User: Which sequence fits this backbone?
């Protein structure tokens, strides 16, 4: 395939940045999107041009680092896939593809398509964990009976990879889907109930301090989420937050 790529180029966080066009050919429909980007960067490097910076790691849809805004959609036109799982068969010969970084004040651009998502890490540090006694007298987790429905929902919430597609897609740059998934994966299990109130209060507080917007129930976050995280988690977090506020 022959393609025209319109890619956001930005030298650093202080640079104004702009869209730059590149023509590329001999792209196989069986290539992944990132493999296509690799081919482009090889061509640019051979010409002495600075390659396009983009995040990637596992290339298996697990790490969440390959975030790109492709033709106006987080992770591109496919559903329930990350950018690294997107294949070029989703495009046609002669297509123009617009590629930009995730846009949000809380995700400042570092270079080209790479953004700083450390705000997610700070939200996690605020309460996305369970404190346990490691004295040797701990109870075996497998010995604690858990209702299957609760376990299933907890595992579904835990599939969130923190890619930030929900933030990039939301018109308010809200992180509610991400935070609610991280709250839910603990609040649904008995091990997470001990610190449940502090967890939801602290994580929501940190989310607000990071400058993420408010949720207005548009639902775009669930649609674009590569792991299909449900809006049900946001409702659960809102209930947990209200109960924690009342009891605090």
Assistant:
């Amino acid at each position: 395939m022959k393609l025209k790529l319109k890619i956001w180029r930005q030298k650093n966080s202080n640079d104004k940045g702009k869209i730059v066009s590149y023509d590329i050919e001999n792209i196989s429909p069986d290539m992944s999107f990132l493999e296509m980007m690799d081919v482009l960067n090889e061509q640019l490097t051979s010409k002495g041009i600075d390659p396009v910076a983009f995040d990637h790691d596992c290339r298996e849809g697990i790490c969440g680092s390959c975030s790109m805004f492709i033709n106006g959609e987080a992770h591109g036109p496919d559903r329930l896939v990350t950018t690294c799982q997107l294949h070029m068969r989703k495009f046609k010969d002669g297509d123009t593809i617009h590629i930009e970084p995730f846009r949000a004040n809380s995700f400042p651009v570092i270079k080209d398509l790479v953004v700083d998502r450390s705000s997610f890490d700070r939200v996690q540090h605020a309460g996305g964990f369970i404190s346990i006694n490691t004295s040797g007298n701990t109870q075996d987790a497998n010995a604690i009976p858990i209702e299957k429905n609760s376990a299933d929902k907890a595992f579904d919430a835990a599939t969130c990879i923190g890619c930030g597609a929900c933030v990039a897609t939301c018109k308010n740059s809200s992180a509610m889907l991400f935070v609610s998934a991280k709250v839910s994966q603990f609040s649904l299990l008995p091990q997470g109930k001990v610190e449940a109130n502090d967890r939801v209060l602290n994580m929501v507080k940190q989310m607000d301090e990071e400058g993420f917007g408010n949720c207005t129930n548009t639902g775009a976050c669930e649609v674009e989420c590569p792991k299909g995280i449900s809006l049900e988690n946001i409702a659960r977090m809102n209930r947990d937050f209200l109960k924690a506020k009342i009891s605090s």
About this structure: Residues 108 and 116 are 6 Å apart (CA to CA). DSSP finds eight helices and seven strands in the chain.
